[in-house]
Amino acid sequence: MTTPSPYESAFKWARYLVRQYSTGFWVSTVLLSLAAALVTSRVPLPKNPTASDNFLATAAGIVCAGALVFTVSYGIALLRAPYKQRDQLRAKLTTANSAIAGLNATPAPARHAASLRSIARGLRKNIEELDPLDYGPDAATLKPAFHQHFPDVQNAIDGASRISTAFVALKGRIATEVVAAGMNQKPWTPETYSPWLATTIQARALQRVTGAPFAFPWHSLGPGSEFMEEPVYGNNQVLVGAKPDDVPALKAKFEALFRKVEASPETAEVVRASEGHAAAQAAAVANLAAIANTDPITSKCFLCDGAQRGD
């Protein structure tokens, strides 16, 4: 039986210790059995006892001796089990502390440290511009490594990125509604009006004015061609090549789409995500700025050993 983990139950440890004491258990059983047999030989037997009577008396003594030895052995093992668990846990902690001390003895490999700083700069930009977090092309490996180096920054990053996660969901809802309404084909131009729709609704959500009247900035480039005038992102085409007589109805359909998306759960989540966003964003940006300028990086992660050691 292999040595149990220190996280196993005391009963499993007791069974393990009983097996460890098996030699002593059998020796004790034999000795006690001999003593029991001697005692039972002095016990008055029926007049003219038969061989069976003598055998049963001796067997009873042996069984009672074995049961007594087992009970005492298991009881002692059960009492010792927590102390054995403690000793093994202490040994594991000592080994772990030694490994951590060894890892922290030297800075992270140069290439890995540069990668961490690059990730920090990229995440800071993502958070400032409300973009989804980008840990680079090997995010599955680098994300856990980054947070293993800097565990204290994860809560701030998660809090600051909630709004970008909500914004991605909002854009997904817009794409779904556009297809469902048949507004993804000519004369519609979703490749230009969908980004405007998403950013405008997000801005209104951040300003807590969703559901309030909205003055659509319609402008015409000619018959059947309509766009939204946007001073920051430029003009965003909505209709091109539509029949002039259909334009009023198509504009009304677009405005209905706007109101439907703005009333969606995804927009409500943007509003919720914006609560406390400013404080989380400030904390995340400050932490990431410090990481980007940390040299040398002395903490370690699972990538700091192996191939990158000696970079």
Task: Outline the structure in words.
With 311 residues, this protein is mainly α. Helices cover 65% and strands 4% of the residues. The chain has helices at 10-20, 22-42, 51-103, 110-128, 139-149, 154-180, 190-206, 247-262, 265-274, 277-292, and strands at residues 218-222, 225-228, 236-239. Strands 1-2-3 form a three-stranded antiparallel sheet. Strand 1 and strand 2 form a beta hairpin. The relative contact order is 0.12.
Put the structure in a nutshell.
With 311 residues, the chain is mainly α. It has 10 helices and 3 strands.
Structural descriptors:
311 residues; mainly alpha; 3-stranded antiparallel β-sheet; 10 helices; 65% helix; 4% strand; elongated; disordered C terminus
Break the fold down into its secondary structure elements and pairings.
Blueprint: H1 10-20, H2 22-42, H3 51-103, H4 110-128, H5 139-149, H6 154-180, H7 190-206, E1 218-222, E2 225-228, E3 236-239, H8 247-262, H9 265-274, H10 277-292
Antiparallel strand pairs: 1-2, 2-3
Helix pairs in contact: 1-3, 2-3, 4-10, 6-7, 6-9, 6-10, 7-9
Number of strands: 3
Main structural class: mainly alpha
**Most strands sheet:** 3 strands, antiparallel
Radius of gyration (Å): 38 Å
Poorly predicted parts:
307-311
In what range is the share of β-strand residues?
Answer: under 5%
Shape: elongated
H/E series = HHHHHHHEEEHHH
> What's the arrangement of strands in the largest beta sheet?
1-2-3
Provide the residue-averaged pLDDT: 81
Number of helices: 10
Q: What is the CA-CA span between the terminal residues?
A: 43 Å
Helix content range: 55-70%
Number of domain units: 2
